[in-house]
Amino acid sequence: MIRVLIGLLAAICAQAATPLFQTSFEKPNQGWTVVRGAAVPDAAVLHGNNRSLRVESGGPLSDARVRFAPVSLSIGKRYELSGWVRTDGLEVRDLDRSPIAAGAALTMASMPFDVHSASLGGARPWTRLTLRFIASRAQDQIELTVGQGGAFQGKAWFEGVSLDEVSGADEWPAREAVQTFGPAYRYPAAGWIYLHIEGRPYERGYQHGRLMAREIPEYFERCAADLGAKDQWGQLRTMANALFLRGFDREILEEMRGIADGASDAGAMWQGRRIDLVDIVVANVTVEMGELRSAMPMTPTGLEGLSFDKPPYAERKPDTAVDHCSAFAATGPATRDGKMVIGHVTMWPLTLAEQTNVMLDIQPEKGHRSLMQSYPGGIESGTDWYQNDAGVVLTETTIRQTPFNAQGTPVAFRARRAIQYGGNIDEVVAELGTRNNGLYTNEWLIGDAKNNEIAMYELGTNHVKLWRSSKNEWFGGTPGFYWGDNNAKDLAIKLEYLPDPKGAPEYVPYMPYDRDLAWQELYGKYRGQIDEQFGFLAFRTAPLVSASTMDAKVVSADMASRLMVWAAIGKPNQREWKPSHGGYANNDGLYPSGYHLFRAEPSETLRTAMQENEKTRLAAKAAEAKAETKPAAKPVSYKDRLWKGWILPASDADDWFAAGSAAYYRALEADDLARAMDVERAAWRALKWEGDTPGNHVRREQTKGVLFLDALRNKMGDAAFLKLMSEFFAAHTTQTVTAQSFLEKAGVLFEFTEPGEGPAYITGDIYRRLASAAIVYGTLRDAGANRYAAEQLQSRFLDRRESAIPIYKDFEATDEVLGRHDVIFVGRPEANSALAAWSGQIGLDYQAGVFRIDGETYASEREALVFAASNPLDRSHMVLVYAGNDALRTVKALNARGEGQYVIYEEGKPARAGFVKAAKND
Question: Which of 226-235, 240-249, 759-768 has the lowest mean pLDDT?
Answer without folding.
Answer: 226-235
